[in-house]
Amino acid sequence: MRTTATGLVADLAAGRVSSSAALEYFLSRVKEHNPALNAVVALDVAGARAQAEAADAAAARGLRLGPLHGLPMTVKDTFETAGLVTTAGAPELAGHLPERDADAVARLRAAGAVVFGKTNTPLYAGDFQSCNDVYGATGNPWDLARTPGGSSGGSAAALAAGLTPLELGSDVAGSIRSPAHFCGVCGHLPTRGAVPARGHIPGAPGTLAVPPLGSPGPMARCVADLELALDVLVGPDLAGVPGGTLPAAAVRTGELRLAVWAEHPALRTDPEIRAALDELAGELAGLGVRVLRKLRPPRPLYEIHQTYARLLLAVLAPSFPEPVFRRLRRIARRASPDDRRPAVELGRAVTLSYREWQDLDERRARITAGWAAVFAEADAVLTPAAPLTAFAHQTAGTPLTRELEVNGRKAPYLAQMAWATPASLSGLPATTVPLGRSAAGLPFGVQVIAPRWHDRKALAVARVVERLTGGFEAPPGY
């Protein structure tokens, strides 16, 4: 059975396979591979079978429920799903059965998708690994001793292992793009505001206000599948808040102008990833692409990174347990102005005053305005999707105290979001597509950043890259 969403949708539409048969295929894959992988953490077998049977009955009558008619799929366990447990990795939500779907999930179901399960995530989507006290840790199908990334790590692992053909993830600091990079699949961060976020945890269950950072987005095995899902997901939310529209993108390879940024001051990029990106740039130039190696970001990358890190921690503050928040507030208040210890900096970030937030937001607005000059010269920007390949599981300590090793040097754990922050800060669309594999056999990807509301341009460029690199490759044994 074909395991791309576009291929399977075509087979379903032509009657070559039934929705029920497709569902049973993926359930069998979950049964075979998930015990070791722990990517799919909750199932609604009875509900999914009923939905698949209804899709097949509609097809028999000549009716089509939508562009995803009868397609089985899973969604990240941060999206509320009516009648299917939604925990966001939090023990206090272990029994949470939502009464309604998150808006993005509702949109997928309205297009005919059959949601049969949920995929693992860290506690409140707050880590670069997918491990929590409710379901445990998810392994990377390329090496179970390594992380698939976070926070959409279960999503990426399930896709790479062939447990699902399509996934709904979410991304605030690389949470779609980094797991796609670690697992060798594709992921798309939409323009902020293009896809409705209501019903995503965090905030708290039932929250109507939408956080000011991040976005839901599709994950898949190929760029065509991202496009299929994005067509369904983009639009006004179910509360009537209007979304944007995405203009079509007709890309002629020989007329493309692509900037390439390969090194970041916050965390050195692995040499194998840099070399592969340089090789890709050469191949693109051979196709007539104008490769711009000297075009600079709107502001220094480290300034972008620092600005976003502070905004992000402030946004995450409401999900901190109250005792932790109070302790951090005390630490920040008692510290001297020149104290730069991590705990002090964290305390300052999570207890920002509105005036301080406004100052940071103005800096963000100025950086965002500066992208106009970048995109006047380039159609899109290519960067690494993350600075390193999948690393071994780290459960000791906290994200503040952990360290990573890149090219023999220690680096702060949180710095791995360095390449995610330029698009995240300014709400730009960004697509991750497989680029290559390391000498150790681990996959890695390239990120394509495009102007706001030009998601289709990012995806079109990603298609060009996909044709050059060969795209998704299944891990051994899957």
Automatic annotation (TrEMBL):
Q: Which UniProt keywords apply?
A: Hydrolase
User: Superkingdom, according to UniProt?
Assistant: Bacteria
Q: Which Pfam families match?
A: Amidase
Q: According to the UniProt entry, what is the EC number of this protein?
A: 3.5.1.4
Q: Which GO terms describe its molecular function?
A: amidase activity
InterPro entries registered for this protein in UniProt:
Amidase_dom, AS_sf, FAAH2
Domain Amidase spans what residues? Answer: 22-457
Protein name per Swiss-Prot or TrEMBL:
Amidase
Origin organism is Amycolatopsis rubida
